[in-house]
Structures
1.
Amino acid sequence: MSSKLSSQRMALKFPAKRDWSWKGQYWLDVGCGSNKQPHCVGMDKRKLDGVDIVHDCEVLPWPMADETFTRIIMSHLMEHLKPWLVNTIMDEMWRVLKPGGQLMLAMPYAGSFGFYQDPTHIKTWNEATPQYYDPDFPLYKVYEPKPWKIVTNTWNQATGLEVVLEVRKEA
């Protein structure tokens, strides 16, 4: 890793008056907008109420150190990302999560009304897509990104897709 890249990945410096730790954990809400989830550090490309880190998640690397967070929430953002950046963004989330950390994803189901209603939706997932990130499945061999374990993968064509992935890192 180059020193230039390392210098961009600085440790988060939280305001002293706010305790970002919740039960000893640090959670990141990526693309939180003005609806940041409780107990989370909010990151969004827009400076809105509740946003703690103003940063576009498609600009890499993110301005935080390796293994900073125990959980990342990305709710209804994945379908807005440029498809050619998705694997790199997944690898970036893997980088900032601690070993065993979890990524919680929610998005409209592929081809659903919820997907097609928003003109800014670019690409979404179906129930097979998480298998590209889990080495226990043959689809992983297509891209071989950083390894995740599928913890839960639930979907309904009317209500959407919810996935929890866990980072696989050697301790």
Note: The first strand starts at residue 27 and ends at 30.
2.
Amino acid sequence: MRKILCAALLSIAVAIPASAQMKIGYLNSEAIMQQLPEAQDAQKQLDGITTDWQTELAKMQTDLQRKFEEYDKKKLIMSDKRRSEMEKELQDMDRKMVDYRTAKFGTSGELFSKQNELMKPVQDKVFKAVKDVADEGGYDYVFDKSSTTLLMYSNEKNDLTAKVLVKLQQK
């Protein structure tokens, strides 16, 4: 979809007469996010949370593995009732681990929510700075060089990355 939009915008830009030329700029949002302290702080928080959750998952996996090895060693000498109880316990442990992983890392899990919570203000700040720079510079379109938008050629004089960083540092 973005490639189609990009191609359409570029074909429109070529079709417009020289007297009404569009001004197109580009930036590298990855470079901006890497140099923006708020983005780095948010990423560190996310990394810390993720590490804690992964540690908890590893502990659950170790407990499950240990319990399974215990079961496997003793299953032949267990009564049917005890074997059935152990198997149910193992299934419950496995289900809890899967549920935990889904709750933390799933598509609607806590990590997704936390990313939105921490990164949304940073992204809003960057978008505002991009808009301000584009308005001040009279740009009609600004493309993000680091995203999936197809950009075959870019004149370095139209790189707005440094200007957006300066705008962000002023605030």
Note: Strands lie at 24-27, 141-144.
